[in-house]
Structures are given as structure tokens and as C-alpha cells.
Amino acid sequence: MQVQMWYPININSNLQNGISELARASRHRFADARALLREARWQGAMSIARYAVECLLKTKLMHIYRCRTLGDLEDELQRRSILPTHGTVFTHQLEVLLRLAPGWNRLMQNREMRRLFSNKVNKWTPTWRYTSMQATREEATEFIDSVDTVMRWVDNNI
Description:
Blueprint (H helix, E strand, L loop, with lengths): L18 H20 L3 H23 L5 H10 L14 H6 L4 H6 L1 H9 L17 H21 L1
């Protein structure tokens, strides 16, 4: 018996990965994270907040390189030899995305931003989606506050 999978969103379609859509998604995911935090859904709040950073970084990269979609961005970065031909912008790895931006060195030189990014925001892994372990209120609040601070820095500096 063959199982058919249904995916409500094709992440490779231009509709879902355009610059305007990603900018809105970033704001919406952060609002979702705050709502989950208010409802004591700590682990979910942390997971969703991290996607807000991912969407913001992709939006910023698309602005910098004057691309309308993630596919265009990937092509442009590869054309400029900024992204290896086997690399992709269709990733959840925040450090990979941030290194593609001209602000990586500035962020690393800022002690507080480096600490928040490296020790908090970038500690997320896809396995968080599959764990039954729960975060605490304090962990979730600290994580979301760190995401907020990093997002503000990215928005103002990249």
C-alpha cells in the first residue's frame, strides 16, 4: 500500500517564499510565539519564535541582493560565488543565513549580540519539534526575549 502525503504549502512556490510573504511570516511567527508564551506552551513558543528570525534573515537577504523570491536569492548568491553551488537558502540554519549577510562580522564583534545569538537563539535544533520534554517559563521567556533582541539588531543593522 502506498501512502500519499498531502502538504498544504509548497515551500518552493514563489507565493510562499516571496519577500513580502516572508516579512509578514516573520512578524506573524513572533506574534504566535508571544501568544504561546501567554498560554504556557513554553516549548512551542520557543520553536515558533526561532522561525521568526529565519524569516527575517531571509527577507533581509532578499532586500540586500534585490531578489523577489528565495529561488532568485539562491541563484544570485551562487552567481556571485557567495553561496556554494551545493548550498541552499532553503535551510533552517540561522548561522548559515546570517553568514550570507554583510552584518555577520558586526554581530560577532558585538559581545552581547554574539552571546544572545550563539548561546540562545542559534541553539535551536529541528529535534525540538520531536521532543516531549518541556521548557520552563523562565527558559521560554529568556529565549523569546533573546529572539526579540536579535531580531531588532538584525532589522537595524543588516
